[in-house]
Design goal:
The chain is of the alpha/beta class and 336 residues long. Helices cover 35% and strands 16% of the residues. Helix 5 crosses helix 7 and helix 5 packs antiparallel against helix 12. The protein is globular, with a radius of gyration of 21 Å. The termini are close together. The relative contact order is 0.14.
């Protein structure tokens, strides 16, 4: 077909399931790109010139300027569920279909990892294990943790993944779950197993807070100085959603003041970070490199969806879960 396909900044796509790459090669030329995470605009457009299909990771940024300078693009398909780094309005204006992986594909993997991070910071698993490796078994009395049972767990964003976190905490551990989600009715939140509350009430009541919201203009730094000041001392925080939901400076202050007793973060503001990041100085903070979706089951499902999207668009068919369906209006779909 002569189509050129760019795989941008994905450390996992096609690595464990080579059949995904083989299916793409049957469609055209495939090339991997490793670009700066803060790249955007004209510079990014020039790097990807000639590629009409883009398989996108979390970053870089496909902003308005990118679409203004980029040549014909048929499809940007996210190898993931978040698409906050893609200017959907500009993509639509340029006739670019944008798709993503359905949330259900990542649901179990991300929810399980949220619980893994929570257990680690509450039970001090990693710290205790490192002491054994150092030959300091005798220091075991310093690793006294906390139980989840009967704690109040607050979920910010009880959608696809947040609702699974709710199920595990409520039915698996016996926590009392409250949730804040401005996109859902109180009745729907109750159906998902949580007590609906305002954000302020959640912050005041919760012993555990799990962030499971997608990032948008309204919830950027949803946890900042004002919000941390509302929390009770000794709160545990878990974030497997987007780093920018938490104001890093405010979190550091809350950790120093004992408001946050432990934090498990799979995402962090401004990621990727290096070894000098100030949060790494805290023994009660665990940071993993955005790997919540990294299970073999999840990566297989993600890759299947991405490749299917590419195949369908190149056949002139409409893929499932188009983020900007208005781009389809009045446009004939033909093979190229």
């Amino acid at each position: 077909m002569g189509v050129k396909i760019a795989i941008v900044n994905s450390s996992s796509f096609g690595k464990h399931f080579p059949e995904h790459i083989e299916r793409l090669k049957a469609l055209g030329e495939v090339e991997r790109f490793e670009l700066p995470h803060d790249m955007r605009g004209k510079a990014l457009a020039e790097k990807l010139m000639g590629y009409s299909v883009i398989i996108a990771s979390v970053k870089p940024y496909y902003d308005k300027e990118f679409f203004e300078h980029k040549d014909k693009t048929l499809l940007i398909t996210r190898h993931g569920i978040g698409y906050d780094t893609i200017d959907i309005k500009s993509a639509t204006e340029k006739g670019v279909i944008v798709t993503k992986v359905e949330g259900i594909v990542e649901r179990e993997a991300v929810a399980e990892n949220a619980i893994a991070l929570l257990l680690d910071v509450m039970k001090k698993v990693r710290s205790a294990s490192l002491k054994v490796k150092e030959g300091k078994w005798g220091e075991r009395a310093s690793f006294i943790g906390y139980e989840i049972k009967d704690k109040v767990a607050g979920i910010i964003g009880i959608g696809n993944i947040g609702s699974r976190v709710c199920e595990i905490l409520r039915y698996g551990f016996g926590a009392k779950v409250v949730a804040y989600d401005p996109n859902l009715s109180a009745e729907e939140i109750e159906k998902r197993g949580a007590e609906p509350v305002t954000l302020e009430e959640l912050l005041k009541r919760a012993d555990i807070i799990s962030l499971n919201a997608s990032l948008n203009r309204d919830n950027y730094h949803i946890l900042s100085h004002k919000e941390f000041a509302m929390m009770k001392k000794g709160t545990f925080i878990v974030n497997t959603a987007r780093g920018e939901l938490i104001d890093t400076e405010a979190l550091i202050k809350a950790l120093k003041e004992g408001i946050v007793l432990g934090a498990g973060l799979d995402v962090i503001e401004g990621e990727p970070i290096d070894e000098n990041h100030p949060l790494l100085a805290f023994d009660n903070v665990i940071i993993t490199p955005h790997t919540s979706a990294y299970t073999y089951e999840c990566l297989k499902g993600m890759g299947d969806k991405v490749v299917s999207d590419v195949e369908k668009v190149l056949r002139g068919e409409i893929p499932e879960g188009v983020i900007n369906p208005e781009v389809l209006e009045g446009r004939p779909w033909k093979k190229i």
